[in-house]
Amino acid sequence: MSNQRQASSASQTPHLSPAELSYLYTSLSLPKSPIRPDGRSPTQFRPLTAESNILPGTNGSARIGFADGTQAIVGVKAEVEKTVLSTDTLASSEVGEGEDSTSTSAAASGHGSWVQMSIEIPGFRDDDALPVFLSEMMRESLVGSVADGGGDGDGDVTMAGGLKGRLVINKRWHWRLYIDVLLLSQPLSYPLPLLSLTTHLALLSTKLPKLKSQGEEDPFFDDDWEVAEYLYPRSSNLKAAGNASQHVRPPVTLLVISVGENVIFDPSREEIAFLPSPLLRDTEAGNLKLLSIRTVDPPSRLTQPAVPNSENVNMLGATAPTEDIAVLNPATGEEEVPGVWRPRRGGVKRSVIANMIKTVLKKGGVGEEVLEGLEGVEVE
Amino acid sequence: MKSLRRDLSSNPQASNVASKVFVRSTKSGKVQKIVRELYLRQDIPCSSKLCSLCPSIAPSDANGNIAPFVLSDRPAGTKAFPRGHYLVPDTNALLNGMDLFEHTGAFYDVIILQTVLEELRNQSLPLYNRLLSLIKTDEKRFYLFFNEFRLETHVRRGPEESINDRNDRAVRAVASWYEEHLGASAKKGKKEKSVPAIVVITDDKGSIKKAKAEKVTALSLSEYVSGLEDSEKLLDMISEAREARDSKGPIGQLFYPEYLSMSKMMTGLRAGNLHQGTFNVSPYNYLEASVKVPAFNRPLLILGRDNSNRAISGDMVVIEVLPQDQWKSPSTKIVDEEAVTRNDNPDSEETEAVVSQNERKALQEEVKKAHGKSSEGKPQPTARVVGMIKRGWRQYVGHVDAGSTGSQAASGRRQQTVFVLPMDKKVPKIRVRTRQAGDLIGQRILVTIDTWERDSRYPTGHFIRSLGELETKGAETEALLLEYDVQYKPFPKSVLDCLPSEGHDWKVPATKEDKGWNGRRDLRDLLICSIDPPGCQDIDDALHARPLPNGNFEVGVHIADVSHFVKPNNAMDSEASVRGTTVYLVDKRIDMLPHLLGTDLCSLKPYVERYAFSVLWEVTPNAEIVKSDFTKSVIRSREAFSYERAQLRIDDPSQTDELTESMRNLLKFSKILRQKRYDAGALNLASPEVRIEADSDEVGDPLTDVKTKAMLDTNSLVEEFMLLANITVASKVFDSFSQTALLRRHATPPPQNFEDLINQLSKKRGMELDVSSSGALASSLDRCVDPENPFFNTLVRILATRCMTSAEYFCAGAHAEPEFRHYGLASPIYTHFTSPIRRYADLLVHRQLASAIGYEGEDGHAVIEGVNTRGKLEDICRNINFRHRNAQFAGRASIEYYVGQALKARGEKMAAGGTDSGIDEEGYVMRVFENGVVVFVPRFGIEGVVRLEDFVLPGEAGSRSVSERRELAVHRTTHFDPREYTLRVEEKGHSEKERGVDVELFQRVKVNVSSVKEEGRGAGKRRVRILITE
């Protein structure tokens, strides 16, 4: 039962035979130059189609389709809401008068619950573990990410306090953000990267009506949508496409697998199925920053280990026992027989993780490429 | 990583779909992004009669009819555009020159863009409504072009383009499209028709420049107008708001604080620190105003120019309560604007202490406390205007202050600024720039206010038109009608088309088979008569009474069946609903319904058969009602009596015919009913009414026309039965339409309204007024009698009436049933049913009653349209309440004017004979101020302010001219005792008892009434001057 649930929660992975798994593993773990089933380089992403502002009624929206046919749509809706004041802030809040010192209160710094996320995946109830888990994971990184802002040059647009802070209108009012994520296809592969990229794109295109009132007044907005302001402010110089034209960007989650010493991005369905040790990682823009790392249980663990010929009763005596060179797995201390599938056990080596992080964060690295690629979608 | 964007350019439909995106903030605080998709089409016609293309593509309605084309094929030309021209104004042009566009001398063939109309609606709702009605009229040929929906003229907003720029571009796009389109159509038509010029009118300099680049003819409003005939007059009609904004180089001294932003006001209103209400200026003191706000049960005072902060009577303002140390008691001074030259010092801005939230909250509590106590003498909460929700500006009738025209007035033609003094004393002087100052002096003129900037002491406005010479009957009557917003234009043709085609020859069908008899009872054999004021032409009601075999009586009230002639929702009905009521002026009647109906077909004239709506009761000899019945009927009135004649006939014992008997019975019942009503606690109220019979000859004393209304028994006879009918109908209609019945209520006045009067009575006369219920009030009013002074009781009643709220029409669903009560009549439910010829409410009630009794009309299907939706009814109620009030004001003002004129005529006659000594009368002191008193003169039904100089001190010649008297004021001094309501006037330095005059409240005084030409404000109105002689 639990196995079944886990399987479906990870993805609907193809059932590969131990022999196939073993073949894949061997080719992916070739030192320096792994061979991927679709011939990509380790850091190469599959082509995807992306567009933003596809739902006119929303504050921001995006659609991304991966080449494998999975598609997601995200719509962001913002509503003005009254901040429920605690008694101390009520006493000190003065209409139309200056700020006071209780900036630590939720009214000033925002609250994580102001972002609401719901994910709909075909075939799942909204209270199933997967949607709940996914949405919480994405929301957490969204509201948790606080950019220190203004790292480089013309820091005219900064977003102090991160998304939470951006949602504060004044002490008595705030925006509530509803992010609705809709996966249009069956979750063929692990859907989180797709959903995360789409959400990222939707948030980039999200605009909030321009505030006309000032200070502690009841909010009052400009009725011209054209002057609405981006939720994630942009710097004025759009021409600098090469540069990160945005200082603060919503985080994205990338799926990375490590096979042996190799780090492989954007794993395809088969690769995930195999997933020796996948890592989910959150990056945040500005100067790219790693928010968190999570490991996901590889579905290939569920495949029964193969039996080496030496142990196969049926094969007994059919082959020479000397051909079996038992290799000791350095991580697990287990015996490995080449060509014979055994689920990987244990964690990932530190050096591999370090390599992974470097690949993502370095100038011109994968992270930058992804974020720029998504931003490029914005250019009309 | 590659990302590809979906390409829309291959979609052929994409260019036909546009969308309009905006942000909407709802009242509840929600902010929504609204997206409207626009499906662009190509079949929206240009509506020019020149066009040969559009008639073939214009969409037709379900009957295959194409809307008639509006724009003339021979548009008027000007010097600049000899081939004729169509105008395309932009929003600013309309904002600044709406009066011009309404002018009948120019501005024909105008293309109004949907873009412009929408923009105008956002900027000014009144102007939007005026534009809509302009588009509706056929004469001016205004065409509403839906440019946003037409593919060729739809303009997509460019990146970084402001809405204004985009809209201006849309205007230009339409102009160039029209040019091209008409050109193409002329070519196709092969006839060498001259294509009219398309002229964009815009006051945006940038837009004019761009238009030049795009080869579109564009002119500013003033440029265009300069090219017209009579341009001087027209130029004066351009709004000053714009120019004031432009010419504001170095901002001068700022006299007034800025208004709060909308969001600040909303925050304050929600938090309860600010209040919203209508700004109401005191009629005695132009510097004092009050604002009634829902939070407190007494109005808040606003004192002085600084605090009223550019608000004008009628504006919807937001106010803030001032700190307690600035609370003041209401002024006890009479202050007229022109009397005060420069009393407002803009430098005397109080330095305002910063008040914290809590203090403000506490302040609101203090207001409540202070309001709870008795008001007399104590400082009252004051407030100041901090924001403006909605301006209540309208067009004002006034005249040019001759003193403000300056020396070059005679040389004329140069534009100069003058002050216009509005007739309404509550409205400040209006600064108007005009090129025709010389011509306008001595004229009644209509002006409007455009703006009131912070650096200007007075509002700025512009001239609209002249009504004629001051003091001429025509000009003054029109002025009056305009002031009270009475629709006095003749009925348009569409209304007259709704009248029966037979005209005056219309008759009740002879055979009962005729469909006109459907559902009607034949009451022609009843002895019905009508009793009305003498000379009444629109006879609404008639009565009868006859004994029944069982000893009871049948009493009937028959009301003109107006709803038979006025069908719901036709042009006549909507015109009547707008007019709301017939307005009676002294020498003129402004009808609600066309003459033919009001005075002939509906009027229950004697000796002819008429349709009626009858209410029939069976009553016992003690006037107990056994049953009541309603029916549509046909009646024949036997006689139309005047009150006097009916009274004579009843009193004449030699008359014993059935008709007279019937009237005697009616009289008997009416007396019983009246008694019952008083027993139930109905009030006998008084209003100072006089009647003027204007048709007397020229030779006699004009004042003989002025008569106080005599109350005969027959007056109350009719009144009682009308009340009874109204009450009976009200409960019937309410039974059938519990939500939508049109009723009339008179709210119980809050006791604090009476406080002042109660104080005054107990102080001066030791009398008590019990206001706990209408019955208690009625009986305590009865006890307020002064044997010395028979008029005293009436005076108290007049004063008590003024303390009450006014009765209002409402829709049954709008209030809970206990709130239906009519306080004055002490009836739990009431409506108006008995005067459908002159009141629209009655007409609606007729329709409701007809439907309630299942009357199916001529053609067998009941018509209850227009009476079954509450929203619509509430709109109607609001309008008729407003019209009703205005009609009363207009009537009173007309009488006042007439009295003034009669006094003037008399004065002139006397002057010819030697002296103008005025006329000596009795007056009663109604109010005492620090520097004058208000005196009521029952003989003429007028009240007037008696200022210091108008007291004739002992040993002084009474007859002095106004200017001589004015000199006196500075030499006089007063002792005013607000607690005792006494005022002593004496000459400075002469405090001897016998050299002064003492007056006190309620005192009977001898007055000398004469009409003087008033300078300043009321010019032409012939202020009635009252001198206290004793």
From TrEMBL, chain A:
GO terms for biological process: exonucleolytic trimming to generate mature 3'-end of 5.8S rRNA from tricistronic rRNA transcript (SSU-rRNA, 5.8S rRNA, LSU-rRNA); nuclear mRNA surveillance; nuclear polyadenylation-dependent rRNA catabolic process; rRNA catabolic process; TRAMP-dependent tRNA surveillance pathway; U1 snRNA 3'-end processing; U4 snRNA 3'-end processing; U5 snRNA 3'-end processing. It comes from the Eukaryota. Keywords: Cytoplasm, Exosome. One of its GO terms (molecular function) is mRNA 3'-UTR AU-rich region binding. Its main location: cytoplasm. Residues 32-60, 89-109 are annotated as: Disordered. The keyword Plastid does not apply. It is found in: Cytoplasm; Nucleus, Nucleolus. Residues 41-60 have a biased composition (Polar residues). One of its GO terms (cellular component) is nucleolus. Belongs to the RNase PH family. This is Ribosomal RNA-processing protein 42. It comes from Penicillium cosmopolitanum.
From TrEMBL, chain B:
Residues 85-209 form the PIN domain. Residues 336-345 have a biased composition (Basic and acidic residues). Residues 520-855 form the RNB domain. Its cofactor is Mg(2+). CDD domains: PIN_Rrp44-like. GO terms for molecular function: 3'-5'-RNA exonuclease activity; endonuclease activity; RNA binding. It holds the Pfam family OB_Dis3. The keyword Aminoacyl-tRNA synthetase does not apply. Its main location: cytoplasm. GO terms for biological process: CUT catabolic process; nuclear mRNA surveillance of mRNA 3'-end processing; rRNA catabolic process; rRNA processing. The keyword rRNA processing applies. One of its GO terms (cellular component) is nucleolus. It is found in: Cytoplasm; Nucleus, Nucleolus. PROSITE patterns: RIBONUCLEASE_II. Keywords: Cytoplasm, Endonuclease, Exonuclease, Exosome, Hydrolase, Nuclease, Nucleus, RNA-binding, rRNA processing. Residues 336-356 are annotated as: Disordered. Belongs to the RNR ribonuclease family. This is Chromosome disjunction protein 3. It comes from Penicillium cosmopolitanum. The lineage of its organism: Eukaryota, Fungi, Dikarya, Ascomycota, Pezizomycotina.
